[in-house]
Amino acid sequence: MNVVILGCGRIGSTLARSMSKEKHRVSIIDRKGDAFRRLGPDFGGQMVVGNGIDDAVLKKAGIEKADAFVAVTNGDNTNIMSVQIAKERFHVPKVAARIYDPIRACAYRELGIETICTTIIGAKLMKDLLLGNEWGAAAEYCNFNEDEAEV
Amino acid sequence: MNVVILGCGRIGSTLARSMSKEKHRVSIIDRKGDAFRRLGPDFGGQMVVGNGIDDAVLKKAGIEKADAFVAVTNGDNTNIMSVQIAKERFHVPKVAARIYDPIRACAYRELGIETICTTIIGAKLMKDLLLGNEWGAAAEYCNFNEDEAEV
Question: How far is B94 from chain A (nearest CA, A)?
């Protein structure tokens, strides 16, 4: 799979390393070149410094041949804009955005954009932990050993 | 349940509102009073400005009678230190910390401290989304409607 990831923060870099390790072709974009340090020395994908809502930057990262585009910067607006560009202008089949704001995450999902709201997920899991509720399959996202710590 | 929450960021404020709405007694601590704006005007819990690894601040927030303590600041070190203080010094029965660093989250869990690593959760969910894997029960943490957006 050809995947373009926007944002080389914690989630972006973890996802990029994991996908690359499994032989997917990964391009990762960040406004700051320094962010790529999180990928470690063994990362086999492409790194592009630039703004993820800029066509030229997206093209350089291979958006025209991408099977998937994921936006995980710290900015909800950037994430949602870039995902819309990837979907509407470049017709990337699979797009997803991380959104902090639960209300917006919900609204965008209703517009057909896949969103993951780490705020809601974190708060719900904490609450279930406090109240002793069963985690069920969610536990597999939370319980991991050190070997799996890179996803 | 008497719960003390350290950190009034996105997850902390969402959790505090949700627990308070369900009639739990909530105290929330943040170093910056401005952070409490996230709780909205209807929040019925206690707000304490201060450093969450300071005994006096924790006591003011009612740690001595707390059934649970949750640390969700942006700092892994603060979260883990405060959780250890709550557990060892104040004997709070249930403690949990949000940890960004997957390796540390794993190590602390092995020491018996409940941790939620939003980095791993976010990256794993994104990966499953891209690869079309089944979310199972994890979906309930990701799919929510607007009424549930406050958890």
Answer: 7
- A106 with B142: Cβ contact below 8 A: no
A88 shares contact with chain B (CB less than 8 Å): no
pLDDT, tens digit, 9 for 90 and up, residues B115-143? 888 888 889 889 888 888 766 556 666 66
Query: Across the interface, do B141 and A124 touch by the CB < 8 Å criterion?
Result: yes
Tell the burial category of A46 from Cβ atoms under 10 Å away from its Cβ (0-12, 13-18, 19+): middle
pLDDT in tens, A91-117: 999 999 999 988 888 888 888 888 888
Distance from CA of B54 to the nearest CA of A (A): 23
Give the Cα separation of A98 and A73 in Å (integer): 8
The two three-digit tokens of residue A29, written as one number: 């974009």
Backbone angles phi, psi at B146, to 5 degrees: -65, -35
List, in sequence order, every residue forming a beta bridge with A122; answer none if it has no partner: none
Testing the interface with B: which of A5, A8, A130, A146 to mutate, by most B Cβ within 10 A?
Answer: A130
Nearest CA among A100, A129, A140, A43 for reference residue B121: A140
- pTM for the whole structure: 0.86
Closest CA to B68 of A132, A12, A87: A132
Q: Is there a contact between A141 and B121 if contact means CB atoms under 8 Å apart?
A: yes
Q: What interface predicted TM-score (ipTM) does this complex get?
A: 0.86
